[in-house]
Amino acid sequence: VVGRSDPEFSLIDQRLVHSGYAFDLYATSWVDASGKEFQRDIIRHRGAVAVVALTDDEQHVLLVRQFRTPLNAWLLELPAGLRDKEGESEIDTALRELEEEVGCVAETLEHLVTLATAVGFTDEAISIFLARGLSWTKRRADGAEEESMTVEEVPLAEVGAMIANGEITDAKTVAGLLLAQQKLMS
Protein backbone atom coordinates (compact mmCIF):
# COMPACT_ATOMS: atom_id res chain seq x y z
CA VAL A 1 0.00 0.00 0.00
CA VAL A 2 1.29 3.42 -0.96
CA GLY A 3 0.37 6.28 1.38
CA ARG A 4 -1.40 5.94 4.71
CA SER A 5 -5.00 5.51 5.84
CA ASP A 6 -6.97 8.35 7.41
CA PRO A 7 -9.21 7.76 10.44
CA GLU A 8 -11.56 10.51 9.20
CA PHE A 9 -12.70 8.32 6.29
CA SER A 10 -14.05 4.79 6.71
CA LEU A 11 -14.99 2.17 4.14
CA ILE A 12 -18.46 0.91 5.05
CA ASP A 13 -19.32 -1.26 2.05
CA GLN A 14 -17.82 -2.62 -1.15
CA ARG A 15 -19.38 -4.69 -3.90
CA LEU A 16 -17.46 -6.49 -6.63
CA VAL A 17 -18.74 -5.23 -10.00
CA HIS A 18 -16.21 -6.89 -12.31
CA SER A 19 -13.33 -9.31 -11.82
CA GLY A 20 -10.72 -9.35 -14.56
CA TYR A 21 -7.21 -10.46 -15.39
CA ALA A 22 -5.42 -7.26 -14.36
CA PHE A 23 -7.84 -5.72 -11.89
CA ASP A 24 -11.15 -5.92 -10.05
CA LEU A 25 -13.71 -3.10 -10.07
CA TYR A 26 -15.57 -2.35 -6.84
CA ALA A 27 -18.47 -0.03 -6.06
CA THR A 28 -17.61 1.31 -2.60
CA SER A 29 -19.38 3.35 0.06
CA TRP A 30 -17.55 5.56 2.53
CA VAL A 31 -18.37 7.77 5.49
CA ASP A 32 -16.45 10.89 6.50
CA ALA A 33 -15.89 12.29 10.02
CA SER A 34 -19.16 14.24 9.89
CA GLY A 35 -21.13 11.08 9.09
CA LYS A 36 -21.76 11.98 5.45
CA GLU A 37 -21.80 8.96 3.13
CA PHE A 38 -20.40 9.00 -0.39
CA GLN A 39 -19.69 6.47 -3.14
CA ARG A 40 -16.63 5.81 -5.27
CA ASP A 41 -15.81 3.24 -7.93
CA ILE A 42 -12.38 1.78 -7.18
CA ILE A 43 -10.12 -0.45 -9.23
CA ARG A 44 -8.17 -2.89 -7.06
CA HIS A 45 -5.01 -3.76 -8.96
CA ARG A 46 -2.57 -6.64 -8.53
CA GLY A 47 0.44 -4.33 -8.75
CA ALA A 48 3.17 -4.00 -11.32
CA VAL A 49 6.90 -3.49 -11.83
CA ALA A 50 9.02 -1.59 -14.33
CA VAL A 51 12.73 -1.75 -15.11
CA VAL A 52 15.21 0.94 -16.14
CA ALA A 53 17.68 -1.30 -17.98
CA LEU A 54 21.08 0.39 -18.35
CA THR A 55 23.67 -0.66 -20.88
CA ASP A 56 27.15 -1.44 -19.56
CA ASP A 57 28.43 2.06 -20.36
CA GLU A 58 25.49 3.50 -18.36
CA GLN A 59 24.94 5.96 -21.21
CA HIS A 60 21.95 4.20 -22.77
CA VAL A 61 18.70 2.67 -21.59
CA LEU A 62 16.71 -0.14 -23.19
CA LEU A 63 13.09 0.81 -23.84
CA VAL A 64 10.28 -1.07 -25.55
CA ARG A 65 7.91 0.29 -28.15
CA GLN A 66 4.58 -1.36 -27.45
CA PHE A 67 1.05 -1.04 -28.79
CA ARG A 68 -1.35 0.09 -26.06
CA THR A 69 -4.96 -0.76 -26.81
CA PRO A 70 -6.57 1.85 -24.48
CA LEU A 71 -4.78 4.61 -26.41
CA ASN A 72 -4.79 2.86 -29.80
CA ALA A 73 -1.16 3.94 -30.09
CA TRP A 74 2.44 2.77 -29.88
CA LEU A 75 4.28 4.03 -26.79
CA LEU A 76 7.96 4.05 -25.88
CA GLU A 77 8.18 2.64 -22.36
CA LEU A 78 10.24 0.93 -19.72
CA PRO A 79 9.92 -2.85 -19.79
CA ALA A 80 7.15 -3.56 -17.29
CA GLY A 81 4.47 -5.98 -16.27
CA LEU A 82 1.90 -7.17 -13.81
CA ARG A 83 2.56 -8.98 -10.57
CA ASP A 84 0.36 -11.79 -11.85
CA LYS A 85 2.24 -14.88 -10.69
CA GLU A 86 1.19 -16.14 -7.26
CA GLY A 87 4.03 -15.98 -4.72
CA GLU A 88 6.48 -14.23 -7.07
CA SER A 89 8.48 -11.41 -5.46
CA GLU A 90 8.70 -7.95 -7.00
CA ILE A 91 12.34 -8.57 -7.90
CA ASP A 92 11.54 -11.90 -9.56
CA THR A 93 8.69 -10.25 -11.48
CA ALA A 94 11.04 -7.50 -12.66
CA LEU A 95 13.64 -10.06 -13.78
CA ARG A 96 10.97 -12.09 -15.60
CA GLU A 97 9.54 -9.05 -17.38
CA LEU A 98 13.01 -7.90 -18.46
CA GLU A 99 13.66 -11.31 -20.01
CA GLU A 100 10.20 -11.57 -21.61
CA GLU A 101 10.16 -8.10 -23.13
CA VAL A 102 13.81 -7.25 -23.79
CA GLY A 103 15.58 -10.60 -23.86
CA CYS A 104 18.17 -9.92 -21.20
CA VAL A 105 19.01 -10.82 -17.63
CA ALA A 106 20.26 -8.30 -15.05
CA GLU A 107 23.17 -8.98 -12.72
CA THR A 108 21.78 -6.45 -10.21
CA LEU A 109 18.42 -4.81 -9.58
CA GLU A 110 18.09 -1.78 -7.32
CA HIS A 111 14.72 -0.47 -6.16
CA LEU A 112 14.27 3.17 -7.20
CA VAL A 113 10.70 3.95 -6.11
CA THR A 114 7.20 2.61 -5.66
CA LEU A 115 4.56 4.90 -7.18
CA ALA A 116 0.79 5.18 -6.93
CA THR A 117 -0.28 5.43 -10.56
CA ALA A 118 -3.74 7.00 -10.63
CA VAL A 119 -4.86 7.80 -7.09
CA GLY A 120 -8.31 9.05 -8.04
CA PHE A 121 -9.65 5.60 -8.93
CA THR A 122 -7.13 2.80 -8.34
CA ASP A 123 -4.85 1.37 -5.68
CA GLU A 124 -2.32 0.28 -8.32
CA ALA A 125 1.27 0.59 -7.18
CA ILE A 126 4.22 0.11 -9.50
CA SER A 127 7.74 -0.55 -8.25
CA ILE A 128 10.52 0.69 -10.51
CA PHE A 129 13.96 -0.95 -10.49
CA LEU A 130 17.34 0.02 -11.94
CA ALA A 131 18.98 -2.92 -13.75
CA ARG A 132 22.72 -3.18 -14.35
CA GLY A 133 25.06 -5.83 -15.67
CA LEU A 134 22.84 -6.96 -18.51
CA SER A 135 23.48 -10.15 -20.45
CA TRP A 136 21.49 -11.17 -23.48
CA THR A 137 19.27 -14.20 -23.69
CA LYS A 138 16.19 -15.10 -25.74
CA ARG A 139 13.07 -12.94 -25.54
CA ARG A 140 10.11 -14.84 -24.13
CA ALA A 141 7.21 -12.71 -25.35
CA ASP A 142 3.92 -13.27 -23.54
CA GLY A 143 0.88 -12.17 -25.55
CA ALA A 144 0.15 -10.32 -28.78
CA GLU A 145 1.42 -6.93 -27.62
CA GLU A 146 4.76 -8.35 -26.44
CA GLU A 147 5.19 -10.37 -29.64
CA SER A 148 4.94 -7.20 -31.72
CA MET A 149 6.98 -4.90 -29.47
CA THR A 150 10.46 -3.75 -30.39
CA VAL A 151 13.44 -2.95 -28.18
CA GLU A 152 15.21 0.38 -28.62
CA GLU A 153 18.52 1.54 -27.16
CA VAL A 154 18.06 5.20 -26.26
CA PRO A 155 20.83 7.59 -25.13
CA LEU A 156 20.13 8.55 -21.52
CA ALA A 157 21.25 12.10 -22.32
CA GLU A 158 18.32 12.43 -24.77
CA VAL A 159 15.45 11.24 -22.57
CA GLY A 160 14.75 14.70 -21.11
CA ALA A 161 14.16 16.13 -24.58
CA MET A 162 12.11 13.06 -25.57
CA ILE A 163 9.88 13.63 -22.54
CA ALA A 164 9.58 17.37 -23.23
CA ASN A 165 8.65 16.88 -26.89
CA GLY A 166 6.07 14.18 -26.16
CA GLU A 167 7.94 11.20 -27.58
CA ILE A 168 7.92 9.58 -24.12
CA THR A 169 4.58 10.14 -22.37
CA ASP A 170 4.09 7.08 -20.17
CA ALA A 171 4.16 8.19 -16.50
CA LYS A 172 6.10 5.23 -15.08
CA THR A 173 8.69 5.65 -17.82
CA VAL A 174 9.07 9.39 -17.20
CA ALA A 175 9.49 8.82 -13.44
CA GLY A 176 11.88 5.90 -13.83
CA LEU A 177 14.12 7.62 -16.37
CA LEU A 178 14.35 10.86 -14.39
CA LEU A 179 15.11 9.00 -11.16
CA ALA A 180 17.75 6.89 -12.90
CA GLN A 181 19.40 10.02 -14.30
CA GLN A 182 19.40 11.61 -10.84
CA LYS A 183 20.88 8.45 -9.28
CA LEU A 184 23.66 8.28 -11.87
CA MET A 185 24.58 11.93 -11.29
CA SER A 186 24.90 11.53 -7.51
From TrEMBL:
A Pfam entry, by short name:
NUDIX
Which GO annotations describe the biological process of this protein?
nucleoside phosphate metabolic process; ribose phosphate metabolic process
For this UniProt record, the keywords arranged alphabetically read as follows: Hydrolase
Could you say which cofactors this protein requires? Mg(2+)
Matching entries from PROSITE patterns are given as:
NUDIX
Question: Which CDD domains does UniProt cross-reference here?
Answer: NUDIX_ADPRase_Nudt5_UGPPase_Nudt14 (cd03424)
Q: Which InterPro entries does the record cross-reference, listed alphabetically?
A: NUDIX_hydrolase-like_dom_sf, NUDIX_hydrolase_dom
> Care to name a GO molecular-function term for this sequence?
hydrolase activity
Q: Which residues form the Nudix hydrolase domain?
A: 44-176
- Whether Hydrolase counts among this entry's keywords is yes
Q: What is this protein called?
A: Nudix hydrolase domain-containing protein
